[in-house]
Amino acid sequence: LRRGSGPGDLAGRRVVVSAGGTREPIDPVRFIGNRSSGRQGYALAVTALARGAEVVLVSANTALPDPAGAAVRRVGSTAELRDAMHEESGAADAVVMAAAVADFRPATTTPGKIKKTGGAPAPIALVENPDILLELTRGRAHDGQVVVGFAAETDHVVENGRAKLARKGCDLLVVNQVGDGLAFGTADNQAVVLGADGSSTDIPTGPKEDLADRVWDLVAERLS
Ligand code: CTP
Ligand code: CA
User: Out of 53, 78, 107, 167, which residue is the most buried by the measure of CB atoms under 10 Å away?
Assistant: First the structure.
């Protein structure tokens, strides 16, 4: 089933994978977060290691054991993830943004714990976070660096995915259908991988490791 893949086809390649979901602090004990488990990103790291790659895994708020052989950097907020991705991507042949990044963060983090006052609670003002994937594609370290994004869509999956691929400027966009218990926190994943070259690859429902291997097949084809 695994076409073109094999032990060693990523030997000598350095890949950077982000996994998990970022958390934006509201006060010292509270945050805005999301339900990403990090399992797809970890599956990408494990399969890349099995294929011989040198792997940096930037892990945001996951509860998963470090994959043996990966260099793991743990981050919390989007700002921390962004700094780590910019530091690590410079020397990378491929960068995969599998992390679920918070689109917005509180405009300010309250230094002390917010207390009830008896009145109406103060609203939390939000500001938009920087788009890390867009920054990575605009600042590609070298021609030939392959940049991969992930997208979770609830409807019009392919149309939304095509538009997102173009907007982000990535080489490949892995589009998952989410909602109704699909994808987040589950062992299995199903996706269509859209390429900047117009290609479209359907990946049937299966373990996240299988999807990861198919993504690396498509990355390997683009590395030269
Ligand atoms: N992403 C990122 N930085 C952000 C938001 C998203 O790097 N601030 C990356 C994600 O890691 C993913 C890709 O962009 O690889 C697509 O994320 P998605 O949330 O689907 O796209 P958005 O541009 O945030 O659009 P939407 O409004 O649909 O959430
Ligand atoms: Ca988003």
Answer: 53
